[in-house]
Amino acid sequence: MEKKLPTRQENFSEWYNQLVLRAELADYAPVRGCMVVRPYGWALWENIQKALDDRFKATGHVNAAFPLLIPQSFMTKEKEHVEGFSPELAVVTHGGGEKLEEPLVVRPTSETIIGTMYAKWIQSYRDLPVLINQWANVVRWEMRTKLFLRTLEFYWQEGHTAHATEQEALEETERMLQVYADFARTEGAVPVIPGRKSESEKFAGAVNTYSIEAMMGDTKALQSGTSHFLGQNFAKAFDIKFLDEGNQLQYCWTTSWGVSTRFIGAIIMTHGDDQGLVLPPRLAPIQVVIVPIYRKNEEKSAVMEAVSAVQAQLKDLRVKVDEREGLTPGFKFNDWELKGVPLRIEIGPKDVQNGTVALSRRDIPGRDGKSFLPMAGLDSAVPALLQTIQDNLLAKATAFRDSHIFEVTDYESFKQVVAEQGWAYAWWSDDRENEARIKEETKATLRIYASDPNLGEGVCFYSGRKTNQKAYFARSY
RNA sequence: CGGGGUGUAGCGCAGUCGGCUAGCGCGCUGCGUUUGGGACGCAGAGGUCGGCGGUUCGAGUCCGCCCACCCCGACCA
Is pLDDT of A1 > 80? Predict the structure, then answer.
């Protein structure tokens, strides 16, 4: 094993793969395309879950659990949904040693089974809205996989809601998009742009799909969360109906929305550097690591006493004391930097003598990120510093993103931008064929439309037609 | 599924013209010395050389078939 990671400059993809393995976030499973999420990675996911779940509860949602196996026939009821998902379904054909009457698919998403249950549960406008979320794993048989970003099986949450009116369902779709955007920025320090997807990029069966788009360290885009307005498509396919106040039978309006373990990939590729992970304090499994430094046993007892005192002061934070014997402090520094711990506190004989500790910020490498503080008062100084780090990560990522988005007005500069510089932002007159041609020629896809309603009017960079719409284009994961 | 590549210790690799006991680095175990930016010494453990078949006195090495994985392209949270 090499001591150092490949640099992001050298080989971004290899940097990512090795980082995930070495930081012990995940490992390859025996089955191609599957991964094992290791305890450190899962702890990060748990913090993501908590932050999201609190937001779901705060917006009136409740959790439930629906089955992993879905009758195959359910998948065929919504036309676009079948077409979108059939190529990537895992199908169970045998159970208990017998061939099944009807094959079962392993859920790639749960619209069909949840829709079936909603049809049963919803009778009246008084039953609406239904606002249910589930935390689950799903399976999609992808051709090319990459740890966290695209695996055959992944973990996510999927919210499924049913409403009496189109307006309410649209509001829900938008509300959850904003919940995701707020989550990504506030918790992950990932500056995302929310917006609507194009016709060709939307979810199979949706009327409209919205997503939060993030820029990774190599300037590629990553769709980091999605919210779908499903109209009455699934309600009609699954017969989700209710009697309104006027005793009229009506179809419901439904939505669905999800964030997956892919978000871990977003964190890695947004903040990570050539030393390793850089985790945002609010989500980091370990927010502060304390490295004791001592030579002789006499020093050790004094140092460990100081360590305990500091640890007690920081009891409200996620703190780890690295008590491993036989490793040098230098090794431990590198190790925790690889793992992305936001703040390191070093306590040695000199500190004990001076009543101080040395602090080292993960977001600012080297000497510039070091400071020395008195032990007294760490209980307020450290949380404040963590918040500073959190803010700095968002600011840095935002500055990086903004300096890699270029407004273009012609196809030549568009091609150059998406090939070498980042995202292109341009006037765009909607045209499915043009969009496909651009993808074919440049590998860049339409990520989202600009959501600013006061754009005015301009000329499409590709077709030359007049338009009142702008869009972001980029190569993406 | 097309194009390229790799399978030798947990990981990364070397192994010449086929040759006798299969090696190196990291990691791992034990003991000792170390410890403020990836410590060092000594002693150890660890291998059906991806699988099957063939050629040969002799195969990690040559031949054939198969398998797996990785990278690049067509689908996707």
Answer: no
A53-94 residue pLDDT tens: 999 999 999 999 999 999 999 999 999 998 888 888 988 988
Q: What nucleotide is nearest A209 when CA is compared to C1'?
A: B77
Task: Write out which nucleotides of chain B lie closer than 7 A to a protein Cβ.
Answer: 1, 10-12, 25-27, 33-39, 68-77
Residue range A405-474 in CATH 3.40.50.1820: no
For A86-107, what is each residue's pLDDT tens digit? 888 988 988 888 889 999 999 9
Fold of A12-271: BirA Bifunctional Protein; domain 2 (3.30.930)
Domain map of chain A by residue range? 12-271, 288-385, 405-474
Q: What is the ipTM of this complex?
A: 0.87
Under CATH, which number does the domain A288-385 receive?
3.40.50.800
**DSSP summary character for residue A150:** B
Mean pLDDT of chain A: 94
Give how far the C-alpha of residue A412 lies from the chain's centroid of Cα atoms, to the nearest Å.
33
Alpha helices, DSSP H, located in A279-342: 297-313, 329-338
Checking each nucleotide's C1' against the CA of A263, the nearest proves to be B77
Mind giving me the DSSP string for A6-46?
Answer: PPTTT-HHHHHHHHHHHTTSEEE-SSTT-EEEPHHHHHHHH
